[in-house]
Amino acid sequence: MRRLQPMQTTRDHQKWTDHEEATLRQLVAEALDYAEIGRRMKRTEESIRQHVYKFIGPKTRRREWTTREMAEARRLREEGLSYAQIGQRIGRNSSTVYQALNRT
Length: 104
Known about the structure:
Number of domains: 2
Largest sheet: none
Structural class: mainly alpha
Low-confidence stretches: none
Mean pLDDT: 83
């Protein structure tokens, strides 16, 4: 009896194509988080994170806070939400939220 191989759901461990490189750069420029980029590209979040860091550079992910984001983060903090909960709601890392809300 022949055993079926599990269906591969991601493209991890496969070489990145030129088209994927261009798509990744575009999605990073749109400031999507790594999890969303991974879903769209059928790669894991960690694969996206590593590829951005190695080949695009970590500074490309930095984006300024909008006035609306800061107001929302402050409002949520006043409501008692944790930095992690705020980060999940506005699509930012919890340490980034902490730093933004505690700047002098």
